[in-house]
Amino acid sequence: MDRTVAIDVSRLCKTYDSHNAVDELSFQVYAGEIFGLLGPNGAGKSTTLRTLITLLHPTSGTATIMGYDSVREADKVRAMIGYVPQERAIDRFLTGREHLQLLGALYHLTKEEATKRIGELLTLVELEAHADRPAKTYSGGMKRKLDIACGLLPDPKILFLDEPTLGLDVQSRLRIWEYVRMLKARGMTVVMTTNYLDEADQLCDRLAIIDGGKIKTMGSPAELKIALGGDIVALTLKEIDRMPALEADLKNRPAITSVRATTKGLDIRVESPEKALPTILESANRLGCSIEFIQYNRPRLDDVFIAHTGRAITESRPEAESA
Ligand SMILES: Nc1ncnc2c1ncn2[C@@H]1O[C@H](COP(=O)(O)OP(=O)(O)O)[C@@H](O)[C@H]1O
Ligand SMILES: [Mg+2]
Fold first, then answer.
1. Residue ranges, CATH 3.30.70.920, the chain
2. Which residues contact 230 (CB under 8 A, 6 or more apart)?
3. Rounded mean pLDDT of the chain?
4. Which residues have C-beta under 5 Å from ligand 2, the single-atom ion?
5. Given this model, what pLDDT does residue 203 score?
6. Which CATH architecture has domain 229-297?
7. Where does ligand 1 bind, in terms of residues with CB under 6 Å?
8. Which of 78, 85, 290, 308: disulfide with 238, CB 3.0–4.6 Å?
């Protein structure tokens, strides 16, 4: 993976009155990755994003975007980024196409450039058929697609998405995930916020879990789960007399992190089930241990969140987790 640093945030603070909305955040975003800020409402995600896009000045600390300082070189930064706010003040009386045309004029695109890019973007977000009716008649998902097209109009190197799928139905969420993956495939760097665990898990290459303005932990979803100790393979054995032999045999195997005896069998922590399962089955077979039942529990990002914040993330749409 490309480890070119696209964004470097160092000890960033933003204080409102005496409240630290963002408290000493430090992290880096690599070029070409999808980086997520995951946290509950009020965690400081939007404040962080708005500082990175130069809309807010930090109380202290710095943010550099492609080497440019977010305060001193704000113009340079703005020329390279696109932003999709949590809630865009879209004039729902204008048509989708008119919104993009208005923005095109703001960005000083020529008429030909604007027409070409707007056509491409409407195709990308599948709004061509609806481009010429008022945006106020759009569904939530269509409005969000228009928001994303607006964020992409300046052809940014880095796209900032604030809660891109908040409140959307499952189909629209999956569509938006597809666009984000497509943008990454085209080489764009994406920084997004979310309070959906499944979104962070499935979409982000790396993420920072943020709570109370502080980063609690950071890494790829897989790394964060492995850091909890890995997946658990729970064996229930038909007879437990040979269990100590199996336990001893499995300990110290490279594919196995740890083995713990339970009343009915063994709880085996593994990093990768594909590597560990054959070892476990071979060993049980060789030692004549009959397995009655195998249960496999993969730690979820929920577990990671709870381990680092001491509580569950407050999901505004819990049903999204089962999607
Ligand atoms: N303009 C503001 N004035 C005062 N407090 C603010 C302002 N913007 C955000 N906050 C506070 O800062 C904290 C972080 O807010 P925000 O960044 O919007 O969180 P998130 O996007 O994670 O939900 C919250 O406690 C919020 O009430
Ligand atoms: Mg927010």
1. 229-297
2. 257, 269, 270, 271, 299
3. 91
4. 45-46, 86
5. 97
6. 2-Layer Sandwich (3.30)
7. 16, 21, 39, 41-47
8. 290
